[in-house]
Amino acid sequence: MQFKPDLATAVGNTPLIKLRRASEETGCTILGKCEFMNPGQSVKDRAALSIITDAIERGELLPGGTIVEGTAGNTGIGLAVVGASMGFKTIIVIPETQSQEKKDMIRLAGAQLVQVPAVPYRNPNNYVRYSGRLAETLAKDSTHGVIWANQFDNTANRDAHIDGTGPEIWEQTGGKVDGFVSAVGTGGTLAGVGMALQPKGVKIALADPGGSGVMSLLQSGEADMSGTSITEGIGNGRITKNLEGFMPDFCYKVSDEEALPIVFDLLKDEGLCVGGSSGINIAGAMRLAKELGPGHTIVTILCDYGTRYQSKLFNPEFLRSKDLPVPGWMDGTPDDLP
Ligand code: PMP
């Protein structure tokens, strides 16, 4: 018999697939790591498992204990499903602007959901700060342990990629990987994979969406937050503990206008339904491909599954309201019928 003892042990070891059009257009082999194939359908399952395991090992979380976190969604889903599979309760604090699909999924996974207004970090009711306070309060009367996952500054997040994602990419490519590209939310993926692969000679690139200050912070120390993006889960206005001590070789600013057509073509032509951050990543991978020249192999992250964004990214009315291009096929006017 072949089976896993529980869902938590099914996290990771995701396949790498060749992205046909991105590869053809650049003359490189561009590979997507299918993180949407994790049990919670996103890359954040890895951070969730690593943070929980680390807390258990440090004796902070006992069976029946509670995990509290502030999250844009995917970490919440990861903590809820992985936490439930390991016997923990989860409370998730989320900005109310996040997609309904992600909120529903967190609730369906058995977590308690607390919605707060989307306010900047300096506001004490910001979702991250709110969740930290909530964990502190609950910990006072707890007998089984309460942890604040603190994904932004808890480096157990980055460790998941130093020990998991990075080495997996190295093994899957037989060491023949020239570049790696990722956007930053917490920075766990970029810095973790970067720390694993940069010392082996792999060029690491940041793909940063509009409205994020990460690229300018790394380049000049100043946060330039200009621009906007409809992508969720990426962008940041500060250097988190997960990013500290890591410097990518290249940085690219990627607009939604550049990234979203890639997401739509990928669904129509290659059967791949991914979220907006994957589009930012692939656009970044194509920029790195042009920088390195034809014949190179570049890996990027397909962070989560697209159905999570049905009401936004894959909704023509929403796209039009943001002045973003709507592909004909999505609008019920297929452009390639005979
Ligand atoms: N894409 C999506 C959809 C995400 O939810 C996240 C995490 N917030 C990321 C990318 C970025 O991952 P990381 O936190 O490791 O930087």
UniProtKB/TrEMBL annotation:
<keyword id="KW-0808">Transferase</keyword>
<dbReference type="GO" id="GO:0016765">
    <property type="term" value="F:transferase activity, transferring alkyl or aryl (other than methyl) groups"/>
</dbReference>
<dbReference type="InterPro" id="IPR050214">
    <property type="entry name" value="Cys_Synth/Cystath_Beta-Synth"/>
</dbReference>
<comment type="pathway">
    <text>Amino-acid biosynthesis.</text>
</comment>
<keyword id="KW-0663">Pyridoxal phosphate</keyword>
<protein>
    <submittedName>
        <fullName>Cysteine synthase A</fullName>
    </submittedName>
</protein>
<keyword id="KW-0028">Amino-acid biosynthesis</keyword>
<dbReference type="GO" id="GO:0006535">
    <property type="term" value="P:cysteine biosynthetic process from serine"/>
</dbReference>
<keyword id="KW-0809">Transit peptide</keyword>
<dbReference type="InterPro" id="IPR001216">
    <property type="entry name" value="P-phosphate_BS"/>
</dbReference>
<dbReference type="InterPro" id="IPR001926">
    <property type="entry name" value="TrpB-like_PALP"/>
</dbReference>
<dbReference type="Pfam" id="PF00291">
    <property type="entry name" value="PALP"/>
</dbReference>
<feature type="domain" description="Tryptophan synthase beta chain-like PALP">
    <location>
        <begin position="9"/>
        <end position="304"/>
    </location>
</feature>
<dbReference type="InterPro" id="IPR036052">
    <property type="entry name" value="TrpB-like_PALP_sf"/>
</dbReference>
